[in-house]
Amino acid sequence: MYPNRLRLALPIAFATASLGFGLLAGQAAEEEMSGDSQAIHWSYEGEGAPENWGGLQEEFAACSAGETQSPIDLNRGIASELSELTMDYQASPLKIVNNGHTIQVNFEEGSTLELDGQTFNLLQFHFHTPSEHTVAGEPMAMEVHLVHQNPDTGALAVVGVFMKEGRWNRNIATLWSQMPRSKSEEKTVSRISVDAAKLLPRNTEDFYRYHGSLTTPPCSEIVNWIVMKEPIQVSRRQIQQFVRVVGENNARPVQPLQRRFLLEAE
Ligand SMILES: [Zn+2]
Predict the structure, then answer these.
(1) Is 101 a catalytic residue?
(2) What SS3 class is residue 202?
């Protein structure tokens, strides 16, 4: 999958560590073996809360020292002619994991996003509650992140889609029916296939773009962010079902825009 492994070792290590490709069980075992019972795990509350991420481990330094961090408040973007997004998503057998921070669905190769003449492969999507990006200061009920990677450079393109409280969502219902209840539990359900296109809003031409980071440690600043303006809908009950498994908050607070430009499709 990564032909140029040596050159790309760094960004890929960052990406895989933070995206948690089912590695949590192994990581926990390693930490136990090191005998370091003082290690504080990153989380969304208490000592491991987002404001402390940068100090938890050396590799997490960007979380506090970085200047192009995510998420951000989406407000007053610069109206621009943004290049079109071309998604070519294929149905993939459901592989769903509870990594202790979110519910994540992993994809087999074959689903791609074309952006600025580059091809990014869809690796996974996962959910946050409330939304991580906000619009003029307001969060929505949830946000899904579709994570794509350029296999040649290791760069990521993440498509964020807001989920607002409203109608019951059939596709979310299918996913939630298989949601692993316990941490580091992973399930493959081959009779269910998942098409990421079903999580996109009808209008995929209106979106924001900016350069940012992973919203979880190590907060690597390697992400082309695309956030759709039109939300999809989920019912109140579906939001509650997610909260019951993952908790009330798995969203990093918004970060300063600093010297970046937020672009907005005209
Ligand atoms: Zn995310």
Answers:
(1) yes
(2) coil
Residue type, 24: L
DSSP 177: T
Number of Cβ within 10 Å of residue 3's Cβ equals 8
Output the CA 71–ligand 1 centroid distance in Å.
9
Q: What's phi and psi for 127, nearest 5 deg?
A: -125, 150
DSSP conformational letter for 18: H
Is the peptide bond preceding residue 130 cis, with omega within 30 degrees of 0?
Answer: yes
The highest-level CATH class for domain 8-32+67-265 is alpha beta
- Which residue shows structure tokens 């350069």? 211
**What is the torsion angle, in degrees rounded to the nearest 10, for the CA atoms of residue 137, residue 158, residue 124 and residue 176?**
20
From the CA of 224, how far away is ligand 1's center (Å)?
13
- Report how far ligand 1's centroid is from the alpha carbon of 199 (Å): 14
CA distance to 74, 133, 141, 152, 167, per residue, from 70 (Å): 11, 8, 18, 23, 29
42 in Cβ contact with 53 (< 8 Å): yes
- Three-class DSSP category at 100: coil
The DSSP 8-state label assigned to residue 219 in this structure reads -
pLDDT averaged over 10-residue windows placed end to end, the chain, 266 residues: 37 41 37 52 96 97 98 95 93 96 96 96 98 98 98 97 98 97 93 97 96 98 98 98 98 97 92
pLDDT digits (tens, 9 = 90+) for 32-68: 334 444 678 999 999 999 999 999 999 999 999 999 9
Q: Name the catalytic one among 41, 101, 126, 128.
A: 101
Angle at 45 between CA 16 and CA 157, to 5 degrees: 30
Distance 35 CA to ligand 1 centre (A): 30
Structural domain spans, the chain: 8-32+67-265
